[in-house]
Amino acid sequence: MGLMLPPGGRISGARLARLLGSWRRGGARQGSADLAAALKLLVADGRLPVGTRLPSERELTDALPVSRTTITSALDQLRTEGVVESRRGAGSWINGPVGAGGGITGGDDTLIDLSRAAPPALPSVRLAMDVALGQMPEHLASHGYDERGLLVLRQRIADRYAARGLPTSADQIVVTSGAQHAWALVLRLFVGPGDRVLVEQPSYPNALEAVRASFGIPVPVPMLSDGWDVDGFEAALRQAGPRLAYLIPDFQNPTGLRMSSESREALAAVLRKARTPLVVDETLVELALDGAEAPLPMAAFGEDSVVTLGSASKSHWGGLRIGWIRASADIVHRLLSTRAAIDLGTPVFEQLVLAALLENPEPVLRQRRAEALEQRDVAVAALREHCPQWSFIVPAGGLGVWCTLDGPVSTRIAVVAQNHGLRLVPGPRFAVHGGCEQMLRVPYTQSSEVLREAIARLGVVAATVAGTGFPADADLAVPVA
């Protein structure tokens, strides 16, 4: 018996065709498996939410350069997998997330997920949980709400900034439920409908989506191959008049680049002159892998006009869902006055866990960096072996390699990769208005064994897309540890 039709918006055939992008492998063969894989990728990325009503097969035939038979076969496959549901007279709609009914993530132990640049927890997190559990009784007698965050955690976060050369008090810190939550709070404070927000191109996809969700308009400034284009930012500030700027100066996601002290000083001066507040995302700042001396935090160059976002998700574990904001006392006061409309504070237990981890942070961070360094080197060696036609700069930190492909085939690679047990995020997801079709991020957050297997599969996918004779349905279902 079919499920009840859920509420949801309808997507037109023309818009769906734009979202699909260059999904075909090329050549004469344009099969239904390609189309089904491309649609599943849109569902997995959240660009086709559950409940979205799909165009009719006739409308899709007009919008896509394929036959109606191909479209019918693709939808039949998605119905079998539980991704799409249909009913006579009501049409078809997205029934559930990919994997919920046997899609690309459900129950398949051969799938390797390279869509998230996020490592698993270190053993120290489990030990910190034991410490936090012992501290919980003293907090249970209180109401448990604290819009600023626990003082002990705010002080240890402030101490970490001081250790990096940026004197900070606990009163300048607001604890949040992750850096994405912190970014949403800042956007709520600074950005109104139609306001422009200056961003790097490429940039972190979820940060761009948060700008759009706040009804702001992201304005991209292209990155240079070796860093930030200060002149380009200055021109964009004059032309666009943005309300806010958002940058990732430390191991930028996805490029892995780190801004030099000279560029920080120059860019901060440009933003001060334009009176544009700057939001700096330091989610990856603790993951320096090359041993080079770190520049001062961006806030050291921008004074009170810089708001800094931090997170424990990459350095410790994403499951903690703890982030923070560092800002001037005035901005902190304004943030707190608006926070109650969104939430009433961050969970106490998770704050105590991170406070325990930050009591003596360096041993834990050294272990995380050593693990990331080993995995980066494995990924780099595997890419050079299996994808020698691609180029990249070996990142000095962060959690991913930003590869330049041998053609504008990123979306096609992400689509075909699903047939080989790989989940990837195509390059255009990191761009504001599309583009980056010649780029692909390869995270190195899996174990060394899994990374070698994943990139070996990726090499087969690249050859498949290039049309060198590898069948897209090749049997690569090798169990992965």
From TrEMBL:
HTH gntR-type domain boundaries: 29-97
MF annotations from Gene Ontology: DNA binding; DNA-binding transcription factor activity; pyridoxal phosphate binding; transaminase activity
Protein keywords: Aminotransferase, DNA-binding, Pyridoxal phosphate, Transcription, Transcription regulation, Transferase
UniProt cross-references to PROSITE patterns, sorted A to Z: HTH_GNTR
Highest taxon, organism lineage: Bacteria
InterPro entries noted in UniProt: Aminotransferase_I/II_large, HTH_trans_reg/aminotransferase, PyrdxlP-dep_Trfase, PyrdxlP-dep_Trfase_major, PyrdxlP-dep_Trfase_small, Tscrpt_reg_HTH_GntR, WH-like_DNA-bd_sf, WH_DNA-bd_sf
Family indicated by similarity: In the C-terminal section; belongs to the class-I pyridoxal-phosphate-dependent aminotransferase family.
Protein's name in the database: PLP-dependent aminotransferase family protein
